[in-house]
């Protein structure tokens, strides 16, 4: 009995102590948003904590959630795969910059077909997701894959059921290649899908595709790789066949004119270039230009600068593409110009 | 001296009585407050749902209830698909669970050998304790692939030429869909219906049953003419409890229903329910109209549950009156 009481007391004391421990680490950077870059943010944060002792608390609740949270000022930074427009940024007083890039891939579940064996192009992909192509042995798919033996099986389309930056970039690409998609379905973080089943999050789509015979879905490349899903190659804008690889993602980003949009809001879908992956996407960070808690924002900017400078190798391990040097310089210059404390002095000092 | 003593005793008595009266008043007020708080909470929930859904309801009007389209791009929302999905999955689940549940209860109370009663009864009650997320994961990883490979292709082929059934069970076999969710819901509501039915069956006086057996009734006649009529109020209660659970179940359904905003005659087609839609989309909904439409869905679920509970009460009242007459 006495033992039990003592144990109880100890447990209670431990539980009571937890809030204080958290409070002692109040210097943790807090952020919320996109699930697409979560694997790399987590990796960077881990390495950064080992080096500086400052951790990061990132909730991967989705891009829409990230935008809501930063607008509600519950986090120091928000993360979104769908860039905010210039006037929306100005209205909220937010600064936006791209953090990292990656690729979206179509994944399929067909017996006897290995990753990269199947080739699709934008038009066929749009037709599949619109329900115009319903069988795997459709002429249009056969034409792109003369050597592959395609089953006469119904295509089970799997899409996101939650709002998602991945959906935004994917539908942007389909809208770019198919006028029909643009007028009938449109481009957004959530859509009215003409066919298919919905699953929550990149993980949900990955799970449903691997569970459903004859399924096709779209996920961020890291999820396809981790779950060993069968991804497809794509025919890009120049009519060349490309495989989803970091080189193909960075080729797509190479030609982008980042200064053309406010807040660096350039969509990398369907970029020119013989080796460009057509479904490349960047992901953005949102911070306040004049934050209430200047110290927290300074810490966050320091972390981002560190990730730009030291995060390249870790990004490559997970097949993300780091931002080009030129863009990083421009972003850091923007921080110094735009992100200021109450005294009007810049919060970020370049080394 | 003695008079003064009696007086003192009287005043002490009075003091104690007053004290008792005071504690009584305090107790009454506190318990009244507890009841009022529940009412206030309920009113508050209804009010905040109504306020939150006002932008959507004022924009779409009554059309909100009858529109199938749910389009976040053009911000045109209609609740028909989730309402349809909620009602169909719950109805199918109850249709399947009630006969099975009553069957189990009959077996446990009338037919089962005594040593087996407790183990089976406890196993069924344990089913109720399994968290819904486990049902969802099991549904997605085990049950749906099983249905996709076995039951669905078979049923689609078997009913292909029969007019109504062919559209009710039309392909392609996705594995997940409305029927899969309904089957998962059946398993989930089964313990509620079974354990309540079993408990009320136990309340049937043995003298009634024994008299029936005594005049030569079969077990079936005893069940259908004595036990079930005697306990129908309780059975109805169990069914309503199960229905309430089925209507509001979120996690397990979200895993296996397919989350597609479409009204489809086929039970194999993916659909969505009100609670699955809210769980999927609320965190990511941007824009006033989108969020408000989701809250309006919540309000509709509130109403559906309310109406069903009210109907149940009404039915019970009628049964009571008939029994009384």
From TrEMBL, chain A:
For this UniProt record, the keywords arranged alphabetically read as follows:
Phosphate transport, Signal, Transport
Q: Where is the PBP domain?
A: 23-304
- Give GO MF terms, alphabetically: phosphate ion binding
The family database entries (CDD domains) matched by this protein are listed as:
PBP2_PstS (cd13565)
Which cellular component terms (GO) are annotated to the entry? ATP-binding cassette (ABC) transporter complex
| Signal peptide span | 1-23
**Listed Pfam families:** PBP_like_2
Q: Name one GO biological process term.
A: phosphate ion transmembrane transport
Tell me, what does this protein do in biology? Part of the ABC transporter complex PstSACB involved in phosphate import.
Q: Which family does it belong to?
A: Belongs to the PstS family.
Subunit composition?
Answer: The complex is composed of two ATP-binding proteins (PstB), two transmembrane proteins (PstC and PstA) and a solute-binding protein (PstS).
User: What protein name is recorded for this chain?
Assistant: Phosphate-binding protein PstS
Q: Which organism is it from?
A: Rhizobium straminoryzae
Q: Which gene encodes it?
A: pstS
From TrEMBL, chain B:
User: Keywords in UniProt for this one?
Assistant: Cell inner membrane, Cell membrane, Membrane, Phosphate transport, Transmembrane, Transmembrane helix, Transport
SUPFAM superfamilies for this protein: MetI-like
Span-the-membrane segments of this chain are 33-57, 77-108, 120-144, 174-193, 233-257, 288-312
Q: Which InterPro entries match?
A: MetI-like (IPR000515), MetI-like_sf (IPR035906), Phosphate_PstC (IPR011864), Phosphate_Transport_Permease (IPR051124)
One GO MF annotation is:
phosphate transmembrane transporter activity
Domain spans labelled ABC transmembrane type-1: 83-312
Q: Does the keyword Methyltransferase apply?
A: no
Q: Name one GO cellular component term.
A: plasma membrane
Compartments (UniProt record): Cell inner membrane; Cell membrane
Membrane topology summary: Multi-pass membrane protein
Q: Does the keyword Plastid apply?
A: no
Q: Give a GO biological-process term.
A: phosphate ion transport
Q: What is its main location?
A: membrane
Gene3D superfamilies recorded = MetI-like
Function of the molecule: Part of the binding-protein-dependent transport system for phosphate; probably responsible for the translocation of the substrate across the membrane.
What family does the database annotate? Belongs to the binding-protein-dependent transport system permease family. CysTW subfamily.
Q: What is this protein called?
A: Phosphate transport system permease protein
Question: Origin organism of this chain?
Answer: Rhizobium straminoryzae
Question: Which lineage?
Answer: Bacteria, Pseudomonadati, Pseudomonadota, Alphaproteobacteria, Hyphomicrobiales
